[in-house]
Amino acid sequence: MYPFEFTGRNWPMLFSCKITNSAIQLLSTSGVDLEPLYRGVEIPEEFLRDPSYWLESEKMEQFLEKAEQLSHSVDIPGIESESFASYLGHNCYHLRSWGVLDSVLRMMQKSQDIFAQPDRFISYFVSPAPPIGDIEKSAKSISFDIPISAEEFPFTTSYLKSAFEAVPSFIGEGFAGVDWRANRMNISWAEDDQQQMFSGDNDPGRVLKPELAESIVNSLESSQKELEQKNQELLLKNQELEEAKVSLEKQIEAQNEAASSTGHSVATVVNLAQLADTVAQEIHGPVQYLQEQVMRLSDYMGRSQQLVTLLVGQGRKDKQIQEAMRRMDWNQITENYPVLIKNTTDSIIRLKTMLMDLSLLVEPSQVNEGELETVDVNDILQKTLSLVNLPSLVSCSTQLLLDRKLKLHPVRFEQAMLNLVTYSLQSIGTEGELRLRTLRMDSAAIIEIFNSSKSRTEEELVNDFSPFRGGEFMPKSGLSLPIAKSIVERHGGELTVLTTNEGTKFVVQLPC
Fold first, then answer.
1. CATH number for the domain whose boundaries are 369-511
2. DSSP strand pairing (431-441 vs 393-400)
3. Cα separation of 339 and 343, whole Å?
4. Which of 54, 126, 217, 435 is deepest in the core (most CB within 10 A)?
């Protein structure tokens, strides 16, 4: 596998879920049971069906290999002479499973427009975009080096090769010829004489003004720099987590040796080892979320760059520009992009804060007065709900009656509420009820988070608030509840849990 370096740190290679979405569509319409396909990748189905999401390269290979096996259980017309991955790529035009890329390709005028920048097309399917080198071009062919080979990824490269061959079908032309040997790809095509899609005298209007084009490009370049910065922050944080885990394991090993040599009990050292493993598991979720959000941002940026190339490079007229933007869902992209950037930034901040909070489980202290801000707890709960995915059969209601703001550490307290809501949703499962309520009672602010789960007793839930019991580290729920309790107490508050015939209720009481 080829290495990518950003600020001296490795970036994992990912393949686009445009591929998985294509496979799922083809297999489902052929009557295949998809459950075995989902089990091997441990990624929710909605992500696999989302063309803007990404999958680790090894998991993509496993996915396509399993899809190949499942395809043998049904009769798929025309697949007899080729592999499933190859057949899948050849049918990309008919499947319409590439999202916005489908619309982009349909707006192109000729094959040369598509193949002239192979790195742009490949970046829709491989992230980070692999470096393309030694490019040789002619009127009807292009060849280049690409650091991906069939030996490494036989199923994915088979799909990509066939997709390259089938791309001219989007503009009504015959398949291209693609020869991919080792790390060298050669593409040749035969252009048809056809009417230009956006030419003619039936659509008068002004050509895109140069200053507008420059403004769009500058805006995109600014967004790209911001995205790259977030990428680097994520990579650095992920590397720091790995280094911290290794450092902690070394400390545990050293303490264990010292304790053994003096004959002292090593139970506490073992507990620290268990703590390190649990910390790694707890951190995996936020890091995975960050990776998914950054990959979605990358896909949005790719769409934007395609649109700019289309408009600026060929000087479209106003009506055609409007139609292109409509097909690209430009309004949705411009609305979602800044939101995704902010969510990514907030997640990185939460992750940093969570790591600091872990160290305070052993040595709790009050929150520094200088870190407090006057915030609306009702707003924090609303934001918390926006950060979680509610299953379709889980009902959620809010009754936010607290009528005054409190002095809190906003990021830490938001993390505490997120932990309680996430724990509640995990307890509920796929069907149930979640209720959030705030109110003021005398000189205290009350926050109630109710879930309809009855799976655990009140004693078990109380025990889960303490990471250490009887000299052992044993929270069955992970660290979400201990961290939430620590954060609430450092704000001078109290977190309790009650169980009733209806379910489980967490109650946070804060001075106000």
1. 3.30.565.10
2. parallel
3. 6
4. 54
Contact 317, 204 (CB under 8 A): yes
- Residue 428's Cβ-count burial label (10 Å; 0-12, 13-18, 19+) is buried
| Cβ count near 55 (within 10 Å) | 22
Structure tokens given for 163: 């997709």
In the chain, the amino acid numbered 494 is E
Are 373 and 491 contacting, i.e. CB atoms less than 8 angstroms apart? no
Over its C-alpha atoms, the chain yields an Rg (Å, rounded) of 27
Nearest to 6 by CA among 248, 173, 245, 235: 235
Superfamily of the domain at 5-188 = H-NOX domain (3.90.1520.10)
Tokens of 485: 């309790």
Q: Which of 79, 43, 47, 70 is nearest to 58 (CA)?
A: 43
Dihedral sign for Cα atoms in the order 40, 44, 45, 46: negative
Tens-digit pLDDT profile for the chain (512 aa)? Answer: 444 443 334 556 888 889 999 999 999 998 888 888 887 777 778 878 888 778 888 989 999 999 999 998 888 887 877 899 999 999 998 998 987 777 777 767 778 877 888 888 888 898 888 889 999 988 889 999 999 988 899 999 999 999 999 999 988 888 999 999 988 999 998 865 443 433 333 333 334 444 544 454 345 445 544 554 554 455 456 556 666 666 666 665 665 566 555 444 444 544 554 555 566 556 656 666 666 666 666 666 666 656 655 665 555 556 766 676 677 676 777 677 777 767 776 676 666 556 555 555 554 556 666 678 999 999 999 989 988 878 889 999 999 999 999 999 888 898 899 989 988 998 898 899 999 999 999 889 999 999 999 888 878 887 777 765 544 444 455 677 888 888 898 899 999 999 888 999 999 999 98
Residue 395, φ and ψ in degrees, nearest 5: -85, 145
Structure tokens at 166: 């089938």
3-state secondary structure of 40: coil
Length of the chain: 512
- The CA-atom distances, in angstroms, between 478 and each of 78, 179, 381, 467, 469 are 50, 51, 22, 8, 14
* Residue type (1 letter), 213: A
- C-alpha distances (whole Å) from 466 to each of 121, 139, 190, 257 are 52, 70, 70, 27
Q: DSSP assignment of 428-452, as one string?
A: HTTEEEEEEEEEEETTEEEEEEEE-
DSSP state of 328: T
